Amino acid sequence: MDPVRQQAIVIGGVNYSDSSRVVWMLTPDYGRQSFLVKGARRQKSKYLGSLETFNLVRVSYRRRERSSLYTLGEVDVENHFGGIRRSLDAFWAASQATELIKLISHEEQEGAALFELLSGFLSLTDRKSGDRAFLASLLAAFRWRLTSLIGLEPQLVECVRCEKKLTRAEKYRFLLIRGGVCCAECGGSPEPADLAEEHAGLVSYEALRFIYRSIRRFPADPEDLPQLSGSLLGEIEELARRYLAYHLDEKPREGKILPRTAPTGSLNWKPGNDN
Ligand SMILES: [Zn+2]
Q: Which segments carry the region annotation Disordered (predicted)?
């Protein structure tokens, strides 16, 4: 096959033998790719410094039909994201995002949307690496945007039980098992199976609004990201953690509550509005 030349983000790696390394990268065209890099750990390696996690690179390599462990050709670093490496907060946020991508990305599967999300995240994290509050909100937005890209988008506009449009309330009951929120009527008549403690929780209107925005669009600019108070952020992150843990144990479901493509429309969401 002809050599492939494309952008990639280094998402991790593991040492292999005394001098080599296996390196994982996320690419737009082929999803996660694994490379055996011989001599990568030697001081004189031509790859020294270019295969660090988070690096945005341009790689060339030959794809083969019978193998998914490729031999790396040329690597040019396009962005080393120095800001991320100088700030503990930024480094932590970037690690969280990259770990999640490593978990959910597939080999040999087109991954342009994931690539765009991760590169956007890393570049904003790099730019705002000293702003801890911003980074925390950005990571929350990243996690929720990711749910929609992998077919796990929660249902937040209509009740997951009766399908009626939600009306404005202070809190909504979120049913992990059904992948979204239910109306006060449905939430008030518990079914033991899906209102069990580990499956449900109450979520504030403000938290749902942030999640809804994040699902539809990842911020392109720092100004696009609503700043969250500590308690609101905690609520959103806790829900993301439980939601992802719950659903990543299963295969993404088909059907209305978990559409495969992101919806389009206004970001000024209110339950009960048509947009
Ligand atoms: Zn309902």
A: 255-275
Show Cβ contacts of residue 92 under 8 Å, excluding neighbours closer than 6 positions. none
Is residue 112 in a domain? no
> In sequence order, what are the residues at sequence separation of 6 or more whose Cβ sits closer than 8 angstroms to the Cβ of residue 44?
none
Q: Is residue 24 part of a domain?
A: yes
The number of distinct structural domains making up the chain is 2
Could you give the CA distance from residue 195 to residue 191 in angstroms, rounded to a whole number?
A: 6
125 belongs to a structural domain: no
- How far does residue 88's CA lie from ligand 1's centre (Å)? 44
- Ligand 1 centre to CA of 182 (Å) is 5
Which CATH number is 99's domain given?
A: 2.40.50.140
What is d(CA 6, CA 61) in angstroms, rounded to the nearest whole number?
9
Do 96 and 142 belong together in one domain? no
Q: Which residues contact 155 (CB under 8 A, 6 or more apart)?
A: 178, 179, 180, 181, 256, 257
- DSSP 8-state assignment for residue 166: P
Same-domain pairing of 139 and 99? no
Ligand 1 centroid to 209 CA: how many Å? 19
- Interval between CA 150 and ligand 1 midpoint (Å): 26
Alpha carbon of 189 to ligand 1 centroid (Å): 10
Co-location of 156 and 243 in the same domain: yes
pLDDT tens for each residue of the chain, 275 residues long: 678 999 999 999 999 888 899 999 999 999 999 999 988 888 888 898 899 999 999 999 998 877 789 999 999 999 999 999 999 999 999 999 999 999 999 888 899 999 999 999 999 999 999 999 999 999 999 999 999 999 999 999 999 989 999 999 899 999 888 899 988 888 766 665 555 555 668 899 999 999 999 999 999 899 999 889 999 999 999 999 889 888 887 544 433 333 333 333 333 344 444 33
Q: Does one domain contain both 144 and 252? A: yes
Residue 170, domain extent: 134-275
Give the global pTM: 0.86
